[in-house]
Structure prediction request, 732 residues.
Amino acid sequence: MSTIARKKGVGAVLWDYLTTVDHKKIAHLYLISGGIFFLLGGLEALFIRIQLAKPNNDFLVGGLYNEVLTMHGTTMIFLAAMPLVFAFMNAVVPLQIGARDVAFPFLNALGFWLFFFGGVFLNCSWFLGGAPDAGWTSYASLALDSKAHHGVDFYTLGLQISGLGTLIGGINFLVTIINMRAPGMTFMRMPMFTWATFVTSALILFAFPPLTVGLIFLMMDRLFGGNFFNPAAGGNTIIWEHLFWVFGHPEVYILVLPAFGIFSEIFATFSRKRLFGYSSMVFATVLIAFLGFMVWAHHMFTVGMGPIANAIFSVATMTIAVPTGIKIFNWLFTMWGGSIKFTTPMHYAVAFIPSFVMGGVTGVMLAAAAADYQYHDSYFVVAHFHYVIVGGVVFALLAGTHYWWPKMFGRMLNETLGKITFWLFFIGFHLTFFIQHFLGLMGMPRRVFTFLPGQGLETGNFISTVGAFFMAAATVVLLINIVISVKGEKAPADAWGDGRTLEWAIASPPPVYNFAQLPLVRGLDPLWLEKMEGKKELTPAEPLGDIHMPNSSFLPFIMSFGLFVAAFGFTYHQETAWGLPVGILGLLITFGSMFLRSVIDDHGFHIHKEEVLELEKKGANA
Amino acid sequence: MTNQMNSGNERVDLAYRRRKNAEEMRHQVIAFVLMILLTLIAFAAVGYEEFSHWFVIPFILLLAGVQVAFQLYYFMHMSHKGHEFPALFIYGGVLVMLVLVWAFSTIVWW
Ligand code: HEM
Ligand SMILES: [Cu+2]
Prediction:
């Protein structure tokens, strides 16, 4: 099989992506599908804000509002933020540790396709009676009561499928980072983004099983006559809330730790200075992850757990502010005395600090259990978590997009357009969410589809809606930037000129095998070290030789498609005759392709030394 | 760390490997016999009417714990070098689960 790039037709490119097991292409897939779901979730957000732009509006009422609201939250968390985080992990982590791919390339593809089909399944609900409408938290008492259509079943089955993909992805990154680091890349020489990926993957490993258990219980209750959450039959509806938040709080760290990682890279690169307090950053990341498992019940202060439980979870929650504070100061000290370049990614990084700190401060306010009785289920909570999720995670994803775009696609994004995107988004974000703190304190409840005139809520809501349109405009500018980048400036290997980590040492985009020779890592920020010694390239750790590569495979797609089919079958198995057979057919497809995977020997192939040399020569001239 | 290098060392010391394997086998057999013994003791403890439940239940739980340790350390090779990460993640998972159970059984339910 030849790997020399040549112009391919659309069909060939499509087939390439459908069967790829290359982490760089899987990163593209995550970025594109996560991006599309992000646009979808954004559109839903706009609809919500339009409905709330004026009192007694009737743009989206009642049940439909609940569906749009639920799908906005679910899409943004599970189908936009998580896959976008995975896009950067896939694109960057193997390069940062000096590896040729992830540990299990086939599983990597499987993880993506499971996420993809789970997401598509969830969104099919729009066309099949109605979307889930019990909130992204899908509390059991609401979920079991949602009987008008199959919405919530799409939620339970879709999230099980995509959750499986996430779990697979997490395990894959754990094994990759433990086993595939280049010679000399010790744990305490790993870039912060790789550390964040490692800790995040551990969180995924421990946090997703409780969600899966909860989803299976809910599925049983709704589709198979179970009574786990039905108090009338001896069940307990509160168990869902615990299971959900045992997953849910670590989930917020699954999102925000990679965001911290992205910003750590950007601060160091554009301050042209080593990350301040590297080891304390690592320590803080691990500590946040650990504490993240001990605080889930802060989402349930008003459930009636009693004063002792509330007090313990309240204090535990507040302690997380300490390691987070350590990180904030480290970023500030990284900039201190650095020679700062205000590129687009750096704009996001600098704006992230005050924005995220505001979210953290309201977090500590919410963590005071007694005060939470007042804030709970009000717009104050909405403001809080958007400050952490948008001000932290989305800023990081946008920053990462600008920062790593040249590495992923080989073209620079336009800096002027990038800065326009930033300012529109930054202004829009604060316009939308800052005022919501006060709307909440004035008593505007969360998840309610309208409000009355004459209660002082009009101006605030109107401002908030205007802000949302600013963010929409920012997104449009970003899309334009992406489209014109196809003809944009070609990116060199060290695209920003200040790269510190290994990914900037190889061509943009990297060749299939990443490193012709695995590099020898001599310290933190290996590329920077070499550049400081006047060298242009890394010291190789091995002689040039044939490179072993995994074969592409269509099986991950089919396996995931099988579960997609099965999910339809089981959703409709109660009222139709075809449901059960279709469900079984789907499972047969999945298990059949798993069987094929086990019996067919696949030893991969080699790229020969001569071919590598030829490719390297071409890459160097590009 | 080096398993993806394209230059590998193919030489292995066969005699050493064989000796090591024999020793390994002996440990496995001993552990296996012990595990069967523990299982028999557990059955006996439950079957023997004179013992009170207050003794039997903690006792068989203890035996179960020992069995898990045997399983992990002898059959799944965690006693070997290079298993620090599996150990870390297993104990991490156990810790998280214990906190959960502890929280549920003390402060959450009542
Ligand atoms: C860093 C990333 C964070 C994210 C992504 C995040 C996200 C969220 C979300 C989505 C909710 C709403 C839950 C619901 O549906 O009711 C929430 C609520 C809450 N958050 Fe955060 N959060 C983060 C950080 C923090 C921090 C640092 C604290 C405290 C130190 C905190 C404390 C709380 C509390 C106490 C609530 C419950 C409020 C209530 O139910 O009334 N969060 N957060
Ligand atoms: Cu939480």
Remarks:
- The radius of gyration of chain A is 24 Å.
- The first helix of chain A runs from residue 10 to 19.
